[in-house]
Design a protein that fits this description.
By secondary structure, the chain is mainly β. Strands 2, 4, 5, 6, 9, 10 and 11 form a 7-stranded mixed beta sheet that branches. Strand 4 and strand 5 form a beta hairpin. It is globular, with a radius of gyration of 14 Å.
Length: 124
């Protein structure tokens, strides 16, 4: 079965950094677009970043642009999110998601597979 497992979350002070990892199994990783979403208590799920089959094709939410960097290592079936200059507003559960990049999608939320999430807490 397809499995996505996030890791790397934790508690960090404002201005600090964290690197999240998403290990994928059960799918042809190189054929999938990968993305990060986050959800804070009482808020809807929010798009954070996406990376397509070509690692040069990336997209970021305006709120994280310039601070976060998404990357992937197809040899390791792993996606990463380097988070720098963290703010308290970044506090949320961060989810890894995957979808077949050989198919057209109308919505940035149409992802077939999701991980369980990892908690990121940024203190002021």
């Amino acid at each position: 079965q397809v499995q996505l497992v996030e890791s790397g979350g934790g508690l960090v002070q404002a201005g600090g950094s964290l690197r999240l990892s998403c290990a994928a199994s059960g799918l042809t990783f190189s054929s999938y677009a990968m993305a990060w979403f986050r959800q804070a208590p009482g808020k809807e799920r929010e798009f954070v970043s996406r990376i397509r089959r070509s690692s040069s094709s990336t997209d970021y939410a305006d709120s994280v642009k310039g601070r976060f960097t998404i990357s992937r290592d197809n040899a390791k079936n792993t996606m990463y999110l380097q988070m720098n200059s963290l703010k308290p507003e970044d506090t949320a559960v961060y989810y890894c998601a995957a979808r077949d990049d050989r198919t057209y999608y109308r919505s940035q939320y149409d992802y077939a597979y999701w991980g369980q999430g990892t908690q990121v807490t940024v203190s002021s």
